[in-house]
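Handout, page 2. Input:
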Amino acid sequence: MARVTDAPKVVTANRLQDGAVVWLDRAGVWSTNVAEAEVHAEATGTEAALAVARASAARQEVVEPYAIDVVVTEGAAPQPVKVREQIRAAGPSIDAIPVGFAA
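Output:
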């Protein structure tokens, strides 16, 4: 079971079309940029965003939406707290095309 914290949260998922990590923005649109994610300071905002995300999952736009804790600093993008989420926010950790592969 996930631990509940009072930290601000953003909603994330993976886009079903290509597997990209995406973040839910204020307009309820998925973005590949964590800086565009809507930050929720209260549980009611997080739950409302998760409802939007679950509807998107039901339409098979994304898979497995969930909320993560972030640190918010003035003038900076929200920073995920956990290392796993920091890696997801930074993008792929390996090249998609192996070295020596002729495209």
